[in-house]
Amino acid sequence: MLSSLRGVEDLAILLFVSAICGLESFLREVLASGCDANIVCCYGYPDYSYHPVPALSTAAGRGHVDIATILLDHGASLYGKRPEKYVGYDPQTQPLFSACQGGHIEIVKLLLDHGLDIKKAENEGKSAVIAAIKFPQNIDLLLSRGAGGHAHFYDERANPMTTAIKSGCISSIQVLLDHNVPVGPSDLFVWNENLIGESSKSKDGPVILDLLAAHGVVAEADDRDAQQSLRDTIARGGAEVTEFFLKRGFDPNLKWDGHSSYSRSYLKDALRAENEEAAEATIAVLLRYGADINNLEGYRHNFMAFYGESKFLNYYARLLLDRGANPLPESRFGLSLLDFATENNFKAFLREVLRYIDAQNLPFTDIQRNFSFVESHPEIQKNWPAMNIWESFY
């Protein structure tokens, strides 16, 4: 059958079909027909590709140990052939990196047993450990065989420890620590190396932060980067990580003077969470640790993302007003609610806010005090169409 093929291109395609599908007998036949085990191919085009992939890398990435063994026995390069015409060559198409990314430890062992030098494979600025960062057993094997656990890899813009922390894989972090890999940021990418912040993004953030603290990376309550990490965590709705910070003395009412973007209440940051459940859980943590719900500001510049009346009502009124936020116009928060509702013609929302006010059974003096407050501020009264509704309601 193979004798009828046109030549090298057809054989190369069949070589890669064999490597992808794990067709051992067919692969032997292709190689016996004179096909070079080092020919590169990508998506069926062996002679032109900006991302050439050796057949051995294809087999390694799929965990085909028998296929990889046959290719190695037929002279396949341990490092992948680098043809000069391929200007887009990526060192991560080497067999080692393909195996590491797929978590195929048997392939990694096979390559090492055939004499692969990890340092030589990593000399293109890529890290084998980083490629295997989700697979602790592979990391352990690589480090025990000379992989660069301490190095800063220019092409990766990171080092293995930084990448492990960003991945949130506790087991991988522990393996690196067991091999005495230091806990520290990369020297290459300064603005992305807040290890506290990276750790707090993980669902296992508290465990990772405790692990780092034991090695000298501690979340300090007076550190601006750590404070920003807390704010970002709250905005993601990370209730457990939020509690980790607050347990360690972080101020639940912290505001940065002179920084308008960071002067809002953490309670309002929590409303940015991806879903209502996460927002509610995070708000509950903040209130439990002393967040002052009476110190809420107005909505402007903080909640322009709430465009729909229903969503605004669910997030804003029910999560904060139900927990004691002041709906009266004498508070900046209450004033902004009424202002926002009338400005956007959110009638149902406006009625709901007024019900919150009425449910407090305010004495007439309190109601009068709020009228007086608005009347004493002409600039508010002028731009506050809720005043007429307020008067008609009471």
Automatic annotation (TrEMBL):
Domain of life: Eukaryota
Pfam families per UniProt: Ank_2
InterPro entries documented for this protein: Ankyrin_rpt, Ankyrin_rpt-contain_sf
UniProt keyword Repeat, yes or no: yes
rRNA-binding among keywords: no
Name recorded for this polypeptide: Uncharacterized protein
Organism expressing this protein natively: Penicillium fimorum
SUPFAM superfamilies, alphabetized: Ankyrin repeat
ANK repeats by residue range: 91-123
Signal sequence region: 1-32
Keywords: ANK repeat, Repeat, Signal
